[in-house]
Specification:
Helices cover 25% and strands 28% of the residues. The protein has three helices and five strands, in the order H-H-E-E-H-E-E-E. The chain is globular and about 50 Å long.
Length: 139
């Protein structure tokens, strides 16, 4: 479906595509990309940590979204435009304030399960997810 990409093409194309946008901000670097496969690195920096000093789940989700996007991009003919459909994005948002709402579905001794919704200023659904949290150290 796609075509073979040289390392130089991958570097040139993605450096240009990511200049000054979110992927640049996150420090993503394409390590390898070919039809059906991609590897993207993200340097772990303190600004990506959550309060307990580990990488925030949002940074991990961003990396997952990006590596899938790179793989999809190089697996389709040149000029094809792609956006993520899964990861439960409902609509794009460019400005305003987003509000996340989380509702517990299960509150157990070792795990809790949550339903999460992200809404925009007009209270339109932007994104939804479920998340499970595991207790790794009890208070």
């Amino acid at each position: 479906m796609g075509r073979s990409w040289t390392r130089e093409e991958v570097e040139r194309v993605f450096q240009a595509r990511w200049q000054g946008n979110f992927n640049d901000l996150m420090g993503f670097e394409v390590l390898e990309a070919a039809e059906g496969f991609a590897r993207v690195a993200m340097p772990v920096e303190p600004k990506l940590h959550q309060p307990f000093g580990i990488v925030h789940g949002g940074a991990l989700a961003s990396l997952a979204d990006t590596v899938g996007g790179v793989g999809s991009f190089v697996s389709h003919p040149v000029g094809t435009e792609l956006v993520t459909v899964e990861i439960n994005f409902v609509r794009p948002v460019k400005e305003g304030t987003l509000v996340g709402e989380a509702k517990a579905l299960h509150l157990g001794r070792k795990t809790s399960v949550w339903e999460i919704r992200i809404l925009d200023d007009a209270e339109r659904l932007i994104c939804f997810a479920s998340a499970t949290y595991m207790v790794i150290k009890e208070a």
